[in-house]
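Open question from group meeting: does this chain pack into something compact, or does most of it stay loose? Before anyone orders reagents, we agreed to write out a predicted structure and look at it together. Recording both the input and the output here so the notebook holds the full record.
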Amino acid sequence: MKKIKVAIVGYGNLGKSLEELLLNDKRFDLKCVFSRRDIKAKVFTYPMSKIKNFKNKIDLLFLCGGSKSDIENQAEELVNDFNFIDCFDNHNHIKNYISNLEEKAKCTKHTCVCCCGWDPGLFSMMRLLFNSIEGNCFTFWGKGVSQGHSQAIRNIKGVEDAIQYTLPNKEIVKQIKNGVKPNVNTKDLHHRQCFVVANGNKNLIKETIIKMPDYFEGYKTTVKFIDGEQMKSHKKLYHGGEVLTLNDTMNFKLKLESNPVFTAKVMKAYAIALNNLYESGEYGAYSILDIAPKYLTNSDYIAYI
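Structure tokens returned:
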């Protein structure tokens, strides 16, 4: 099998995790990293302004930017010239995001795998299976660090650094596992805990966080301002969660030491699927739910049955 020529777009925690995984996987040839910042990586680095110079030189891109302001804009532009895989995770925008890319990808004969991580991604698959088989399916995230929500806070003017923990409502989890269907709003299932280092108007920053659509609005959210030294104790990027049905009849659970490392593993796995789809002439925009598991391997998939 010839190596898949790939590049990384964005060099945050996810980009760095992917770099490490790809360099140690003989199926991939990591050519470079593209970034808007001046970075030092283990491979060649280029500014984003140079990315179109690599058209027809790269088999696929890994988009590792933030969902709030990066991926949607980048994808709309890059789909004209590249195949790519991303981890877009704004659930309220996913339907429009994929449908907007579908026509462009088919017209330009490219293949995109969208919203590919553990949620959306693996948890999406479990929700579909569990609801189809058992019904009354619920998803809980945490306790853990949400990279997307943390980045959304960091984008606020006056914020130097931030971390956001997602905490499941333990009482509601207990009810469900005991067979009691909760009569609550879905936003009552979690509490969002934010730690922020700021040099701006703290009241305004807090209000901006709490009222942020798609991220914090409607959730029980607490905001605590700390200094840079205190923030050092919040740098562990653990996360996890579970998808379950009433009485805990069906349960899929993840306990992750590193959110970005596991997300990178899922993206790397589905990059194989993307390449197989593209080489089969299957152009368009796909989510994990659209992709038959057999595309994840180049070996005889019957061996896994």
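Observations to bring back to the group:
Residues 135-249 form a domain with the Dihydrodipicolinate Reductase; domain 2 fold (CATH 3.30.360.10).
The radius of gyration is 20 Å.
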